[in-house]
Design a protein that fits this description.
Layout: H1 9-25, H2 31-46, H3 52-69, H4 77-87, H5 107-119, H6 121-141, H7 143-146, H8 151-176
Helix pairs in contact: 2-3, 3-4, 3-5
Length: about 190
């Protein structure tokens, strides 16, 4: 069965308003309290059976919390504030649909996560790529050596990969011009 929810601009304004109220209510909370509330929500959904729509969004919530706490990722203060601001909704115990309502209780949380993830998708994609890079390094060189890898190491690796790909394409393309087979090349020295 497939259920599609189309959110109108008025519906989105409802969620924006809920986010504003949550931010005001959470203004006194520390980063640890905000991420702790988000992790509690994540744990609460693991304790009950929830629809796939909800569980898949909750995994993204865990990623957002990881971005805040992963010192090797090294986000800027501005990025950290943005993510924490997005997580404040999940520290509000009085969200739109009470979480203890079977099946639907976490629906508003899942929708809010979807909206937050859409807004932070590029940051999330980069962090998930960093986590894969670190995991691969753990398999290649061991967990202890990989534990010190940071964002700069990841960026350096990505730069190296892009340069290698560029050189490979250049080599492949120059062969199609006849370069390397005694044919025409724009950059041959004679």
């Amino acid at each position: 069965m497939r259920v599609v929810i189309d959110l109108s601009e008025q519906d989105l304004e409802h969620f924006r308003s809920a986010m504003r109220r949550a931010k005001e209510a959470a203004a006194h909370l520390s980063a640890a309290e905000i991420t702790g509330a988000a992790m509690k929500l994540l744990d609460d959904t693991k304790a009950v059976q929830v629809p796939e729509f909800v569980s898949s969004r909750m995994k993204r919530l865990g990623t957002l919390v990881g971005m805040v706490h992963d010192t090797n990722w090294g986000i800027s203060d501005e990025e950290r504030k943005e993510i924490l601001s997005a997580l404040t909704y999940f520290s509000d115990p009085n969200d739109a649909i009470p979480d203890d309502i079977p099946v639907l209780g976490f629906l508003d949380d899942a929708i809010m996560i979807e909206l937050v993830v859409d807004e932070l998708k590029h940051e999330i994609d980069a962090y998930e790529d960093f986590c894969l890079f670190r995991k691969q390094a753990e398999e290649d060189v061991g967990a202890v050596e990989a534990s010190g890898l940071n964002r700069d190491d990841w960026l350096q690796q990505r730069q190296t990969e892009l340069l290698d790909r560029m050189r490979g394409r250049r080599s492949r393309d120059s062969a199609s011009y006849g370069g390397g087979r005694g044919g025409f090349s724009l950059f041959s020295i004679r």
